[in-house]
Write a structure and sequence with these properties.
154 residues, mainly alpha, three-stranded antiparallel sheet, 3 strands, 9% strand
């Protein structure tokens, strides 16, 4: 079975997610998967067998319990296959990281200077309420009208 055939099943992906947190007993895995997917214990066992036979999971006996863990080798093979496609998303993620860093820096600088970047002077009465009219001299009446809604008297 090809790696993407194994990973294409949502139940097997969920089992791998559970195993990514560390070794898990088959009973614990089964209980979670049965609850989330509504499949029987033998069904969960079948998925565990597919993962084990295709090298995605290892199992060891501890008394009567069977403990499963992720085997990283097939996932590394998937990672190698994905390498040629990373160029489609890596620049976008790099650009996002740059923008997040700029935002953090702007907030830090604004915190040091005491105002938000690009904000004008703060009025003595405090920050404006959402919907207020700003510098129009209406003392927030347009915000009140917007809160009342159309057709209501105020």
């Amino acid at each position: 079975m090809h790696a993407f055939d194994v990973l294409g099943d949502p139940v097997r992906r969920r089992i791998l997610e559970l195993l990514a947190d560390g070794e898990q007993a088959a009973g614990a895995i089964s209980a979670i998967v049965q609850e989330e997917f509504g499949i029987s214990q033998p069904g969960v066992s079948q998925h565990l067998r597919v993962l084990r036979e295709n090298g995605f999971a290892t199992v060891r006996a501890e008394g009567t319990r069977r403990l499963y863990a992720v085997d990283p080798a097939p996932l590394q093979e998937v990672d190698v296959w994905l390498e040629r496609y990373r160029r489609f998303w890596t620049p976008h993620l790099d650009a996002l990281a740059t923008e997040l860093a700029r935002g953090r820096r702007a907030r830090r600088v604004a915190g040091e200077s005491g105002s938000a970047p690009g904000a004008g002077p703060v009025k003595p009465g405090g920050p404006e309420r959402p919907g207020s009219s700003g510098n129009s001299g209406n003392s927030g009446n347009s915000g009140n009208a917007a809160r009342r809604g159309a057709g209501e008297a105020g």
